[in-house]
């Protein structure tokens, strides 16, 4: 970990930060960075209440204070301030209309997303420390073109939680164990650091990746917004993979609007990822911001699959989601209740996804490692051997059983073909059939419980903050068919604006700087 991130546990809880700037303006107006959205920041830039350098310095200071406990940031970009200075200069020289919404805004990217700069790309593993990527990941290229500032790399569950299921959620050998800023407990994974960091205001925006639940779950548990896009809508070129069939890159932010701005920046054709060519038909002309409508729920048909509302004896949760369903109705949505996915039991009890992911992981990781300019490891077998050689470094008491099982696979045999056929059949005869027969725009479910259905079919989902039970955050999820991001954004934004539930973590009250004078 960079020495600039070092700070004692005592400082985290007791330090009161005084951190201000004299800005080049006679105005006495103060700008609050706390919970600031992209729109807020751009207005502050234009009115000269804030510069990108000041914003980056603010976040670097917050990382220095909070990150030793939260462990949401793995590595800070040493060129972040230089990128901020460049953005400030461009803002002075160019007209505001020529600059993108993300221009001059800091963003963290998960440490399995390649950056061709001074940052490492390691998936949280020492086995990849010092590896040299051939180019920026496709999504990073789009961010740089938009003028966004790459602030650093976010922590994650090591190898996107595909080394072993025995390690805690949010843990990696390089980054340690990430902490939920609301509870200092479970952050969920594997995009844990991305969610932790935006929740705790260590950064404005972040990118995560999802194979099954890795955006939706940490967003749910850290009270932030996560968009898991249709597979292929965003490029996964340059991303340390698990499954090319299920992997997708998406935004994790504090608001639906910020997530929409990031999504419209990174959704694009990438010649290094052929799946983006087919999925590009789903990208709407004019981007995703046009779907940020307060009345976006009006006329939408939302399916309620009661299987996902089984909370045992938790009266609070029952009543909370009952109120949320009423809110959806009051905002003009038509709820189609008591639905059931025909093959739900078969999906939940089946092992097809794990069978497929293991052989896909071996093949895709080997291909990724082969494409590197330089690397300490050249294959999955090398990674396993590295871990065995460095048991203390990689905390091998957690094991690497999933990797070992993946290494034993040998391409696509009879069992693997059947697993793929099963998932296709379940998706077509299950979720797709449910959506089409009932003419649904989306399904609404509590928490991140629907991620498995969305994952195996490559479908999109959006998680929005939905409340706090004894201080523990939870979210609500809207899922739809491939390419339904415009509808999902309308629904999610309308719900968000109707409820405005999100609040900042309590641990930040003595720590944060909220204004520039």
TrEMBL record:
Keywords in UniProt for this one? Ligase, Signal
| Molecular function as annotated in GO | asparaginyl-tRNA synthase (glutamine-hydrolyzing) activity
Keyword Cell cycle part of the UniProt annotation: no
Q: What is its EC number?
A: 6.3.5.6
Ranges for domain Amidase: 55-446
Quote any Pfam family the record assigns: Amidase
Query: Do you know which InterPro entries this protein is assigned to?
Result: Amidase_dom, AS_sf
Ribonucleoprotein found in the keyword field: no
Q: Where is the signal peptide?
A: 1-28
Q: Which PANTHER family match?
A: AMIDASE (PTHR42678), C869.01-LIKE PROTEIN, PUTATIVE-RELATED (PTHR42678:SF36)
Under which name does UniProt file this protein? Amidase C869.01-like protein, putative
Species = Medicago truncatula (Barrel medic)
């Amino acid at each position: 970990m960079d020495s600039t991130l070092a700070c004692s546990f005592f400082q985290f809880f007791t330090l009161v930060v005084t951190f201000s700037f004299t800005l080049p303006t006679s105005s006495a107006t103060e700008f609050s960075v706390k919970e600031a959205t992209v729109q807020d920041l751009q207005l502050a830039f234009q009115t000269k209440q804030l510069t990108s350098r000041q914003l980056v310095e603010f976040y670097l200071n917050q990382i220095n204070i909070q990150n030793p406990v939260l462990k949401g940031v793995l590595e800070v970009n040493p060129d972040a301030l230089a990128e901020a200075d460049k953005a400030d200069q461009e803002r002075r020289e160019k007209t505001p209309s020529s600059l993108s919404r993300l221009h001059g805004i800091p963003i963290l990217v998960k440490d399995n997303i390649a950056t061709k700069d001074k940052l490492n790309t390691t998936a949280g593993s020492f086995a990849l420390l010092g590896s040299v990527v051939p180019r920026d990941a496709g999504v990073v290229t789009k961010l740089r073109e938009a003028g966004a500032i790459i602030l650093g790399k976010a922590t994650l569950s090591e190898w996107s939680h595909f080394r072993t299921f025995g390690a805690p959620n949010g843990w990696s050998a390089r980054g340690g164990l990430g902490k939920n800023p609301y509870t200092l407990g479970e952050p969920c994974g594997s995009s844990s650091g991305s969610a932790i960091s935006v929740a705790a205001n260590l950064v404005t925006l972040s990118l995560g990746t999802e194979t099954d639940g890795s955006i939706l779950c940490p967003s749910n548990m850290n009270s932030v917004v996560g968009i898991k896009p249709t597979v292929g809508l965003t490029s996964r070129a340059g991303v340390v993979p698990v499954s090319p069939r299920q992997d997708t890159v998406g935004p994790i932010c504090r608001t639906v609007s910020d997530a929409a701005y990031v999504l419209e920046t990174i959704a694009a054709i990438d010649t290094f990822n052929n799946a983006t060519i087919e999925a590009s038909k789903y990208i709407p002309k004019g981007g995703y911001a046009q779907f940020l409508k307060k009345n976006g729920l009006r006329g939408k048909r939302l399916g309620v699959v009661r299987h996902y509302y089984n909370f045992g004896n938790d009266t609070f949760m029952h009543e909370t989601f009952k109120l949320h369903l009423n809110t959806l109705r009051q905002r003009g949505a038509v709820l189609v209740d008591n639905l059931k996915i025909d093959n739900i039991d078969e999906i939940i009890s089946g092992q097809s996804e794990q069978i497929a992911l293991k052989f896909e992981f071996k093949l895709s990781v080997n291909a990724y490692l082969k494409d590197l300019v330089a690397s300490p490891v050249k294959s999955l077998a090398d990674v396993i051997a590295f871990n065995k050689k460095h048991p203390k470094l990689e905390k091998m008491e957690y094991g690497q059983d999933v990797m070992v099982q993946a290494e034993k696979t040998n391409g696509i045999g009879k069992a693997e073909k059947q697993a793929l056929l099963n998932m296709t059949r379940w998706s077509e005869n299950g979720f797709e059939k449910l959506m089409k027969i009932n003419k649904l725009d989306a399904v609404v479910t509590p928490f991140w419980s629907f991620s498995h259905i969305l994952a195996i079919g490559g479908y999109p989902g959006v998680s929005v903050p939905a409340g706090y039970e004894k201080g523990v955050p939870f979210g609500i999820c809207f899922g739809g068919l491939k390419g339904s991001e415009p509808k999902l954004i309308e629904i999610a934004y309308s719900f968000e604006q109707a409820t405005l539930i999100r609040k900042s973590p309590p641990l930040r009250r003595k720590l944060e700087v909220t204004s520039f004078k």
